[in-house]
Amino acid sequence: MKKVLIVDDAPVDQQNLRRIFADAGWVIVVANTGNEGVALAKKEVPDLVLMDVNMPGLDGFSATRQLMQDPITKGIPVVFVTGKDQKADRVFAQMLGAKGYITKPYTDDQVLAHG
Known about the structure:
Strand content: 15-25%
CATH architecture: 3-Layer(aba) Sandwich
Number of domains: 1
Structural class: alpha/beta
Mean pLDDT: 96
CATH class: Alpha Beta
Largest sheet: 5 strands, parallel
Radius of gyration: 12 Å
Order of helices and strands: EHEHEHEHEH
């Protein structure tokens, strides 16, 4: 079974993404902060990371930078799922090595297309 790590501080967004991937048969791991997400990615080595951008403490961009620099996690695809819809944010995400960028609100199919 595939495993997804959802890194998001908003309970509603966590719940929605959890439902989408549970219905598709994925194993789900959830982190509430960027720091927790980096630690869980190293421990769980998921098949996919869904990363919010705006979180307290370590934001999604910084957490992704850490994941891409670590030999254990650098091969894990990261897809940003965020409310930030500026071109500069999308470009920065690409520069960090993100495999996708989805803006909220999104459809189930948009999210699963990256899985």
